[in-house]
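Quick one:
INPUT:
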C-alpha cells in the first residue's frame, strides 16, 4: 500500500449471497479484484442450501492479496432485510459498497465511488451494464431513475428509486433512522428514500456493475399463477417500504405533513390492491368506498382501456 493509499479511509465491500452457486465465483472474483485500498471485504451467505458458501470458502482459502477478508454465514436464514441490518452492524468502515451474489463489480468500482466521498452522501449509486445468465453482454441497460433529481413528493410514493445492485451506503442511514423494521420489502426502497429525505444522494454516470438479468427462481407452476404471485409480492414490498417511509419521516422530518399525507394515501391504495387480489370480501368491506382507492381504480381502468384502444388501432 502506498503512502497515499494509507491516508484514505477504510471502505467495506459487502457481498450478499444466497443460493447462487452458478454465479458466486464471478461475483467473488469481482470483489477480490477491487483496486481500492484499504478495503474490507465481507462475504456474507444467508444460509444457502447449495454450494454457495463452500465456493466462497475455497476462494478465501486461496486468496493472497492486500484486502482484509471476512467470511461469514447466517444460521438460520435471516432474509434480505435482516441480513442487510446485520451487515450494517458488523462492517468496520463508514461506507459499505453493496454487491449481490449474481452480479459482478468492475475492478475500479470502489475506487470510482470513493471520488464522491468528500460530498458525504448517504447513498451513492451508478450506472450498470446488463448481462444474461451466461454472462453475455446485453444490448440494453437499466434505465436511470434519477432519484437525486426527483421531487420528494414523487419519491415518497415511488416503487423505483435506484438500482440496488449499484448502491453504496453510509452508516448514517442506520444511525439517523435506526435499523429497517419492515422485513417484507427491499432495502433500496427504504435506503433510497432515507437518503433522499436527508438530501444526500450522489450518482456516478459509469457502468460499475455487470447486472445479471433473468436469474430469478424457476418453478413448474403455471405462468399465470406465477405472474399473479409476483404481482402480489411486488405490492407487499411496496406496502412494507411505505410503512417504513412513514416511520422514517416521522423520525427525521415530522413537520413534513405533505409527505406523510401522500404516504398514508399510498398505503391505503397498496393495501386495497392486495386485498382486491387476495380477499375480495375484505376489499369490499374495508376499501371499496374509500376515495383514494376509487380514484386509483378509475385511473387504472382508464389506462387499460386506452392501451386496448391503441392496440386495436395498430
Amino acid at each position: 500500500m502506498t503512502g497515499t493509499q494509507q491516508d484514505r479511509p477504510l471502505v467495506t465491500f459487502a457481498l450478499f449471497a444466497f443460493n447462487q452457486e452458478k454465479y458466486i465465483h464471478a461475483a467473488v472474483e469481482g470483489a477480490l479484484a477491487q483496486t481500492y485500498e484499504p478495503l474490507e471485504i465481507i462475504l456474507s451467505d444467508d444460509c444457502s442450501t447449495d454450494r454457495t458458501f463452500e465456493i466462497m470458502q475455497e476462494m478465501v482459502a486461496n486468496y493472497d492479496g492486500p484486502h482484509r477478508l471476512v467470511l461469514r454465514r447466517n444460521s438460520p436464514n435471516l432474509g434480505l432485510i435482516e441480513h442487510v441490518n446485520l451487515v450494517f452492524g458488523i462492517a468496520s468502515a463508514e461506507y459499505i459498497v453493496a454487491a449481490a451474489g449474481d452480479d459482478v463489480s468492475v475492478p475500479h468500482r470502489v475506487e470510482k465511488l470513493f471520488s464522491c466521498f468528500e460530498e458525504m452522501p448517504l447513498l451513492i449509486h451508478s450506472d450498470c451494464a446488463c448481462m444474461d445468465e451466461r454472462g453475455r453482454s446485453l444490448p440494453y441497460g437499466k434505465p436511470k431513475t434519477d432519484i437525486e433529481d426527483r421531487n420528494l413528493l414523487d419519491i415518497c410514493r415511488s416503487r423505483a428509486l435506484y438500482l440496488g445492485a449499484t448502491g453504496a451506503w453510509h452508516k448514517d442511514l442506520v444511525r439517523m433512522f435506526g435499523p429497517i423494521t419492515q422485513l417484507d420489502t427491499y432495502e433500496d426502497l427504504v435506503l433510497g428514500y432515507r437518503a433522499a429525505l436527508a438530501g444526500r444522494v450522489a450518482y456516478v454516470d459509469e457502468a460499475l456493475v455487470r447486472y445479471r438479468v433473468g436469474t430469478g427462481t424457476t418453478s413448474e407452476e403455471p405462468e399465470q399463477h406465477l405472474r399473479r404471485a409476483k404481482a402480489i409480492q411486488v405490492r407487499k414490498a411496496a406496502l412494507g417500504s411505505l410503512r417504513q417511509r412513514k416511520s422514517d419521516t416521522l423520525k427525521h422530518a415530522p413537520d413534513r405533513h405533505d409527505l406523510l399525507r401522500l404516504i398514508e394515501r399510498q398505503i391505503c391504495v397498496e393495501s386495497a390492491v392486495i386485498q382486491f387480489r387476495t380477499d375480495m370480501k375484505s376489499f369490499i368491506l374495508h376499501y371499496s368506498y374509500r376515495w383514494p382507492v376509487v380514484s386509483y381504480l378509475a385511473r387504472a381502468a382508464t389506462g387499460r382501456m386506452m392501451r386496448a384502444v391503441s392496440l386495436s388501432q395498430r
